[in-house]
Specification:
By secondary structure, the protein is α/β, with parallel strands linked by helices. It has one domain. It contains six helices and nine strands. Strands 1-9-6-2-5-3-4 form a seven-stranded mixed beta sheet, sandwiched between helices. α1 packs across α3 and α4 packs parallel to α5.
């Protein structure tokens, strides 16, 4: 499922040197820099006990966060699951291959697929991963927006697997924004990072997706307002 390489799909990654540089060296350096960056941060968590309880009971859950909060989001998953951990969706493109190679250095499993191009196939792969025992981290407005507008995949994934939804955000007391479509938030080294988890909840099997989507949108918007308050307060 998730381990299919681009080369196996008829899209070669390039020459051996190109493969080594782009999909070995660059991910290693990128992950190493991010980890060093994270070690300078002072981290505290709010609402963490409920998520710890899910792990203690060996329950699966979906961490749902906006794409602009992706950098340093691995800090929101400090758990060591037996044989499994957290997975994310990474596209079948070369950029996705590079991203998947980077996430591996964080112990994060990449499920390959593109929600925007073939959402049904990507959803099936995500469902399979959760049923195999993986938690899932998902950006409902990814991979290309619109910014902070929820797409239906998160609700469908949670409903079809019975996994808990955990809205989450993180904020820094000192940070800056990139000039990207998502206005990615980057912390200044040695900043304080606060991770806030929303209350975990489940989607009933026969729930109306539209209403549940509005609920999650509202909860994530509230977390975004909280995060902006930390940054600008």
């Amino acid at each position: 499922m998730a381990g299919v390489a681009i080369a196996d799909r008829g899209r070669p990654l390039g020459s051996p040197l190109s493969v080594w540089l782009n999909f070995r060296v660059v991910p290693f350096l990128g992950a190493g820099l991010s980890k060093l960056w994270s070690y300078t941060l002072r981290v505290r968590r709010e609402g963490f006990e409920a998520v710890e309880d899910l792990v203690a009971r060996d329950e699966r859950f979906v961490l749902s966060f906006w794409h602009r909060r992706l950098f340093m989001m691995p800090l929101a998953y400090p758990f060591q699951r037996k044989g499994r951990g957290v997975a994310i969706l990474s596209s079948d493109s070369k950029d996705g291959e590079r991203s998947a190679a980077t996430w591996r250095w964080f112990g994060i499993h990449a499920v390959r697929g593109t929600a925007s191009d073939d959402g049904a196939k990507a959803l099936v792969r995500m469902i399979q991963a959760v049923k195999q025992g993986w938690d899932f981290g998902i950006t409902p407005d990814g991979p290309r927006g619109p910014l902070m507008e929820l797409k239906p995949g998160t609700i469908a994934l949670a409903r079809k697997t019975g996994a808990w939804i955990v809205p989450v955000s993180l904020a820094f007391d000192r940070s800056f924004e990139l000039r990207t479509w998502d206005r990615m938030v980057i912390p200044i080294p040695f900043a304080t990072c606060v991770i806030k988890y929303g209350r975990p909840y489940k989607i009933p099997p026969k729930a109306e997706d539209g209403a549940e989507g509005l609920r999650l949108q509202r909860e994530m918007d509230e977390l975004e307002m909280w995060a902006e308050g930390i940054t600008h307060g």
